[in-house]
Amino acid sequence: MASVPRGFPRTFPARSDGRRPWRYRVVSFLSRVALRLLFGRGLRFEGEAAFPRRGPLLVVSNHLSNIDPFIFGGFAPGTMFCMAKREIYANRFVAWVMAGCNCFPVDRGAPDRWALRTTLNLLSSGGRVLIFVEGTRASGPGMKQAEPGIGFLARRSGAPVCPVAVWGTERALQRGRRLPRRVQVTLRYGTPFEVELPEGRPDDQGIADDIARRIAELLPEEYRGVYA
Question: Has this prediction a pTM greater than 0.70?
Fold first, then answer.
């Protein structure tokens, strides 16, 4: 990343004691209220009991809608960190709020050493980091191929990986639609696992594909895409 966006603090994260900053708590509360008002009992969570409350942990999910990060931020137990595309941080106030929500920018146009180093530092200090395996929202229900950077982070950090699947959000807020609609949305937590490193030359794409296949196994068949 060429430079830290204006408004994003030079010191990140805002807290190093594992607790949520106040901005995180406020946005999380507002997200819970808004999502429950929107989806009601149609917002379902499965396998939450097996989700580790402490790290280090790479939480890796598919991505269908801009609603997805708010579901994690509002309902995932404990404190988490999250990569988010640099474009979101263009506004100085938004960058400040995002930093307080434990979200940090990543430049998707090129290998971003700052974002990778930040992720590895968070994991080495026991953090739980959410990353979307495809690197961006899928254009439809089917999964796209995973980004190799996920494999790199899993390999270099040695952190356990928790696959998570979400579906239904693409119908709630379709591309080009301004207002969401009430549909059934499901978020399913998988079982955390240790990444098995291949012998010889590292295969980051292979590791990423293995993680993505585990996510696909949690999804309905029509959402599995290239990992069907």
Answer: yes
